[in-house]
Design brief:
- By secondary structure, the chain is of the alpha/beta class.
- The chain has helices spanning 2-6, 33-48, 70-77, 99-103, 122-128, 152-160, 173-177, 191-201, 214-236, 241-262, 276-287, and strands spanning 26-29, 56-59, 64-65, 68-69, 93-96, 108-111, 134-137, 142-145, 148-151, 164-168, 182-187, 206-211.
- Helices cover 42% and strands 17% of the residues.
- Mean pLDDT is 93; it is low at 2-13.
Length: 290
């Protein structure tokens, strides 16, 4: 399907910044460590594939760095000097401190920010994006209400009335910044949108796999952090690799049990836990020293 999406629209090499605009306009909401690593790839792929508009806007919560606005520093140096120092963006990535301007007319909006800041932003985003915009969540976490667990992707679907894909994987941002090879997983509900987001993120140093399982992908990205806390305790107590391996094995089984218990009808595929979003992300988080 990816070849059908890109056929006639993508060509080898990069376009000049003055090249014709594509039909899909990309925006990233969130400019932290991981968000900056992801938008760096979006900028490269926007120039690589004709289906995308050249410019990629990055919403940045404005702050001052040595007396100068962070957005100005990013746009002048092509680098997020606070959250991903040393990793250069392509010049087509434009940092914008105004949320409405950052997502204005966007057809593909990616989210990578702490989930507690998401809800207040959605009304502005809904008013500003293009009609029929699709979104992707790279937010690792879950919310809760009086009825229990709430997925971030569901918040986005309901708040923006948009189809939402999910990106999770063994993706340590600082490793991505130096183009060390890694994989990630995109879960989708709409196959065409899943392939478009794959095209936006797939790169020589980032291999993207896709699965029709947004719930499984998203829960993996949240639950692995709980297991990693246990791995941290193991490190602090001075235990070695055998103990941590046992924690990872038991933790993975409990992740699967949690998913099947709370989302029994969501169609979660056992194979999802063997994707980058599952066992790979669990391993890198438990051994990543963070």
């Amino acid at each position: 399907m990816l070849s059908r999406v890109s056929k006639g629209l993508a060509r080898p090499g990069s376009r000049l910044l003055s090249g014709a605009a594509g039909s899909e306009k990309l925006a990233m909401v969130g400019s932290g460590n991981f968000g900056s690593a992801l938008v760096r790839i979006l900028g490269q792929n926007a120039l690589r594939h004709d289906i995308f508009d050249n410019e990629v806007k990055l919403y940045v919560y404005e702050e001052m760095i040595d007396g100068k606005p962070l957005t100005e520093i990013i746009n002048e140096t092509n680098e997020n000097v606070k959250y991903l120092k040393g990793a250069k963006f392509t010049p087509n990535v434009k940092a914008v401190p105004d949320l409405a301007e950052a997502v204005k007319g966007a057809t593909m909006v990616c989210f990578c920010l702490p989930h507690q800041f998401l809800k207040p932003l959605m009304p502005t985003i809904k008013e500003s994006v293009a009609p029929g915009a699709k979104v992707l969540s790279a937010i690792k976490g879950i919310d809760f209400d009086d009825n229990g667990v709430v997925l971030i992707s569901d918040l986005l679907r309901q708040g923006l009335n948009a189809d939402c894909s999910v990106l999770m994987g063994a993706n340590v941002a600082n490793d991505m910044a130096s183009d060390q090879f890694c994989e990630t997983t995109i879960g989708y509900k709409d196959a065409k949108n899943g392939e478009l987001f794959k095209l936006a993120f797939d790169a020589p140093a980032l291999k993207v796999g896709t699965v029709p399982d947004t719930v499984g992908v998203e829960l993996c990205g949240a639950l692995k952090n709980i297991v990693a806390i246990g791995a941290g305790y193991s490190d602090g107590l001075g235990y070695g690799g055998n103990t941590k391996a046992a924690l990872i094995r038991i933790g993975l089984k409990e992740m699967i049990k949690f998913c099947k218990m709370f989302y029994p009808t969501a169609g979660i595929d056992d194979d999802t836990f063997l994707e980058s979003c599952g066992v790979a992300d669990l391993i890198t988080t438990c051994f990543g020293g963070r």
